[in-house]
From TrEMBL:
Keywords: Membrane, Transmembrane, Transmembrane helix
Signal peptide span: none
Pfam families membership: Bax1-I
GO cellular component, one term: membrane
Species assigned in the record: Noctiluca scintillans (Sea sparkle)
Family: Belongs to the BI1 family.
Superkingdom of this protein's organism: Eukaryota
Location(s) in or outside the cell: Membrane
Protein's membrane topology: Multi-pass membrane protein
Protein name in the entry: Uncharacterized protein
Transmembrane segments: 64-87, 93-111, 123-142, 148-168, 180-200, 206-226, 247-269
InterPro entries, per the entry: Bax_inhibitor_1-related
Keyword Protease listed: no
């Protein structure tokens, strides 16, 4: 799941030339023309139209995100609460299949970005990815007590809401922090691989593992702020933004921020069965 976030943020940080939205760019040119002919009322009309487009984009992103989270819960809850540990072990192939399918789907979306901007292909890819992601979350959550899962969900919800409000209200522009966050994500992945190797060699890594999870919580908390401000864009006075056709990738980035934050919190504070 961390690899999925890596791919999504790699696209956001490097490939997406559409952080600067086409509509505001066009509107800026029109406004300059209007000012030249001293037609300030026309310039204001174009600015208002641009704002409405961005508001519609934001509504679409958060609507998609809501459906994704509801689908994830609907798939994960039965695996977490209604299935025995013996069944999960006997059907571990379902977890491996789901992990493979999420990576395949993510790679397809990264390599064929035009499809992620075309209806209904973009929604189909997103539905398949989210359904298999729900299976992965269900299997991982089933390793912990239901109290731990509820606690992690509650903490994730509070952090997400607080960071969303902060991103909307803050006068600081975090949209330029993408390369630094992406570098931190790479370090986190390497750190995780290093811990795994030490664990396989029989070295005690408990405190390193806890530090790894804590760092993961911090990074994805910042990513929520970063991605939220990219979604708000110039409407909130931010320099960079998602293009209006990239609502699927915008929702996917925020979705993966939430899922990874939840899993890191679960590993950090959860009690295994």
């Amino acid at each position: 799941i961390l690899a999925q976030a890596f791919l999504a943020q790699a696209v956001t940080a490097q490939t997406f030339d559409v952080h600067r939205c086409r509509v505001p760019e066009f509107a800026r040119i029109i406004c300059q023309m209007a000012e030249t002919i001293e037609d300030t009322s026309f310039a204001q009309m174009v600015k208002d139209a641009t704002t409405e487009v961005r508001k519609g984009f934001i509504r679409k992103v958060y609507s998609i995100l809501t459906v994704q989270l509801l689908l994830t819960v609907a798939v994960a809850v039965p695996l977490t609460t209604m299935v025995s540990q013996a069944w999960l072990i006997a059907n571990a192939w379902l977890l491996y299949l789901s992990l493979a399918m999420t990576l395949v789907t993510m790679c397809a979306m990264v390599c064929c970005q035009k499809m992620t901007r075309t209806f209904p292909t973009n929604y189909l890819f997103l539905f398949v990815f989210t359904a298999f992601e729900g299976v992965c979350v269900g299997f991982f959550s089933a390793q912990y007590t239901w109290q731990s899962v509820v606690l992690a969900m509650g903490m994730t919800t509070v952090i997400f809401l607080c960071m969303t409000v902060f991103a909307w209200k803050s006068t600081t522009d975090f949209t330029g922090f993408g390369p630094y966050l992406f570098g931190a994500l790479i370090v986190l992945i390497v750190f995780g691989l290093f811990i795994s190797i030490l664990s396989l060699c029989g070295v005690g890594v408990y405190w390193a593992y806890m530090a790894y999870n804590l760092i993961g919580v911090i990074i994805f908390t910042f990513y929520i702020v970063y991605d939220t401000q990219l979604i708000i864009g110039e409407w909130g006075g931010h320099k960079h933004q998602f293009g209006i056709d990239d609502y699927v990738f915008a929702a996917l980035n925020l979705y993966l921020d939430i899922i990874n934050l939840f899993l890191f919190l679960l590993r950090l504070f959860g009690n295994r069965r």
